[in-house]
From TrEMBL:
It comes from Oncorhynchus mykiss. InterPro entries: PyrdxlP-dep_Trfase, PyrdxlP-dep_Trfase_major, Sec-tRNA_Se_transferase, SepSecS/SepCysS. This is O-phosphoseryl-tRNA(Sec) selenium transferase. Pathway: Aminoacyl-tRNA biosynthesis; selenocysteinyl-tRNA(Sec) biosynthesis; selenocysteinyl-tRNA(Sec) from L-seryl-tRNA(Sec) (archaeal/eukaryal route): step 2/2. One of its GO terms (molecular function) is tRNA binding.
Length: 484
């Protein structure tokens, strides 16, 4: 409804009522106007009616929704199922063109506008989350691993002699396979043990750089968010080293947007040294379906090079999902989620520490990891090596998802490389342990129920072990109250 249609409507319905309706619509349009003018996440979240109005306005700008459109090409936004069309708000053309994922599509003005606005809003959120000096980003419809691969492939053209990627070890397959898929040779640098924490061995990294020759190294591939007892890499030192030897630096920031500590590390690394790109997952940071990531950096031309490396058009679904989510939350809503994540981290740590003490275990001291926690399982290991892995199965069947149980001595072949002590980020970590993470969206009920079920599982395993050995295992005195 435009002003002309409202004027005509006054001949049908009382003008005072029409003016009231017109004013109501203008309040929606005012929000949309501010978004278009500023390109920033609104401070307060929008209602679903405003979001749907906006998306419908975008959709009618795409050629597949033109009244009387006659399409004779091979890609005309045709959709056989009306259910699928509604699922995508009839934004069918996707984003980008064959040569650039960020390019404008003449046939899809609405989808192109959606893409540009999403990238702008996401950039605003990255700044809000702590990386104030980031200059450019784009949403790519691939998860973190393939997005890292795209970054490595882009660097190939800038460093034709680059064959190796220096990679402080983190036992997560996708980031390792990202390097292999791109055609490079990962140089695994083992972490060093400091207390309970596994930290970046800077001396070993520099030795590898000198041994291989800086010109033969494609980049340093570091990590922020990770499973305890590993902690985020020493990003400032790695960034300084990258600048010193003129080696690109790519950061795997998979679920680090939700952590002010991880984002601060990236900001500081870029300030004191060199960070070329940092990659983060959409689903882990913004609670949307799996399938998208954000590639961001401090040099706009390099980020544009990465976007141009993407072959073909791309799905708009991840962009649509994250834009709807951020418009729903608003900046204030996302800040609230970040604050709740910190609060739940403290609560989870307290509860795990209490439970660990009740069962003769301890919460590993990993203060540099702002998301993941680890509880030792030395007592279970002493009972039986099988008890440790059995605990993981018991938790899963009792609907405790996301908890990781890491036994000693695991070996795993990943793309031709043998990892000893796999899942522990170390060849010889001294403790078996259980991981739990306080990620964005976790609730107090999640933590309480997890602790209660974990307590029951540990008691059950203790009883089984006692029955096999024929001798009772004494309680610590706190055990009876651990799950309350």
């Amino acid at each position: 409804m435009n002003s002309e249609n409202f004027s005509i409507s006054e001949k049908i319905v009382s003008p005072s009522y029409i003016r009231q309706g017109s004013q109501a619509r203008r309040s929606h349009e005012q929000l949309i106007r501010l978004l278009l003018e500023q390109g920033k996440c609104p401070e307060e979240g929008w209602s679903e009616s405003t979001i749907e109005l906006f998306l419908n306005e975008l959709a009618v700008m795409d050629s597949n929704n033109f009244l009387g459109n006659c399409g004779v090409g091979e890609r005309e936004g045709r959709v056989a199922s009306s259910l699928v069309a509604r699922r995508h708000y009839r934004l069918i053309h996707g984003i980008g063109r064959s040569g650039d994922i960020a390019a404008i599509q003449p046939k899809a003005t609405g989808s192109s506008l959606l893409n540009k606005l999403t990238n702008s809003v996401v950039l605003d959120i990255l700044k809000l989350s702590g990386v104030r000096s980031v200059t450019s980003c784009f949403v790519v419809p691939m998860a973190t691993g393939m997005s890292l691969t795209l970054c490595f492939l882009t660097l190939r053209h800038k460093r034709p002699k680059g064959r190796y990627i220096i990679w402080p070890r983190i036992d997560q397959k996708s980031c390792f396979k990202a390097m292999i898929t791109a055609g490079f040779e990962p140089v695994v640098v083992e972490n060093i043990l400091e207390g309970d924490e596994l930290r970046t061995d800077m001396e070993a990294v520099e030795r590898k750089v000198q041994e291989l020759g800086a010109e033969n190294i494609l980049c340093i591939h570091s990590t922020t968010s990770c499973f305890a007892p590993r902690v985020p890499d020493r990003l400032e030192e790695l960034a300084t080293m990258s600048a010193k030897y003129d080696i690109p630096h790519v950061v795997n920031n998979a679920y680090g947007v939700q952590s002010s500590k991880c984002m601060h590390l990236i900001q500081q690394g870029a300030r004191v040294g060199r960070i070329d790109a940092f990659v983060q997952s959409l689903d882990k940071n913004f609670m949307v379906p799996v399938g998208g990531a954000i590639i961001a950096g401090f040099n706009e031309s390099f980020i544009q090079e990465i976007s141009r490396m993407y072959p073909g058009r791309a799905s708009a679904s991840p962009s649509l999902d994250v834009l709807i989510t951020l418009l729903t939350l608003g900046a204030s809503g996302y800040r609230k989620l970040l604050a709740e994540q910190k609060e739940m981290y403290t609560y989870l740590a307290q509860e795990l520490k209490r439970l660990a003490a009740a069962h003769g275990e301890r919460l590993l001291h990993t203060p540099h990891n702002p998301i993941s926690l680890a509880m030792s399982l030395d007592g279970l290991q002493a009972q039986s090596g099988k008890s440790v892995t059995q605990l993981g199965s018991m938790l899963f069947t009792r609907q405790v998802s996301g908890a990781r149980v890491v036994a000693l001595g695991n070996k795993q072949m990943v793309s031709g490389h043998m990892f000893c002590g796999f899942m522990s980020h170390s060849e010889a970590y001294p403790h078996p342990y259980l991981n739990a993470a306080s990620a964005v969206g976790i609730t107090r009920d999640d933590v309480t129920l997890c602790i209660k079920r974990l307590d029951k599982c540990l008691k059950s395993l203790r009883k089984e072990s006692s029955a096999r050995s024929g001798s009772p295992i004494p309680l610590t005195g706190q055990e009876d109250h651990a799950g309350e």
